[in-house]
Amino acid sequence: MDTEAQPTERDRSSPTAGPENTSGTPGPEERSRSALVRRITHWLPGGRITLTLLPCLLFLLAVNTFVARPFEIPSGSMEPGLRVGDRVLVNKLAYGFGEGPGRGDVIVFDGTGYFGEADYIKRVVGVGGDHVVCCDGEGRVRVNGRSVDESRFVFPGDSPSTVPFDVVVPGGRLFVLGDHRGNSSDSRDRLGSPGGGMIPVDRVIGRAGAIVWPLARATRLQRPDAYDRVPARDAAGPGEGGHG
Predict the structure, then answer these.
(1) Residue range 32-58, pLDDT digits in tens
(2) Cα 123–129–133 angle (5° rounding)?
(3) What is the pTM of this model?
(4) Among candidate residues 179, 171, 205, the one with its CA nearest the CA of residue 77
(5) Would you give the distance in Å from CA 70 to the centre of its chain?
(6) CB within 8 A of 83, min separation 6: which ones?
(7) Which residues form the catalytic set?
(8) Which long-range contacts (CB under 8 A, 24 or more apart) does 150-158 make?
(9) 10 Å Cβ neighbour count for 80?
(10) What local confidence, expressed as pLDDT, does residue 98 receive?
């Protein structure tokens, strides 16, 4: 039996195939690309290092603009959960697919024209249509007729509010409070101002999703279950009409 390999169609055509560049000398396209890279690196401050880092910087910029951004806690208004200097990661896509902020969410919002010329971080206590009252017979905030136990996140020793209020949150707005009720400037302080201290939903930058610094305090921020039993505004019982 003949075991010698028979020439294939490729073998027969190989002698007539075009020559390959095996000398290691760059072809015209490679020389053109190299020249372009040299011109770019000569023009960029920092040269090749900048050219290498630029895609990473553009990626981080895109993430910061459209996906998430860090936010440093500027005051003690959200203690004990968030301390001065903590850095939280704000999820900018949290409300981008139809679902708006919910009761209990910790949000970062643009307070320009409502709170001040800055971004703020507070907890959502009432959403559009909610009737929010302080306080019931036991000193608790009541939402749509349901008293809310906020003791798990309100600063120890603080009452839910020393300022009485009785409001109906307009549609598309939010009633927000700081967790350190004795050290927070929030919706309670602007009840008589334009907008009544209610933040427009379209001013919300995103939901605070996690503490990322310092590492010793790194943790996810979850919506508490304290508001789970609050009925929808439509389901609130008689006598819950309130006023704004």
Answers:
(1) 555 554 555 555 555 555 546 555 544
(2) 60
(3) 0.72
(4) 179
(5) 8
(6) 73, 76, 217
(7) 77, 122
(8) 150/226, 152/224, 152/226, 153/80, 153/81, 153/123, 153/179, 153/224, 153/226, 154/179, 154/180, 154/181, 155/79, 155/80, 155/179, 155/180, 155/181, 155/182, 155/183, 156/80, 158/182
(9) 13
(10) 74
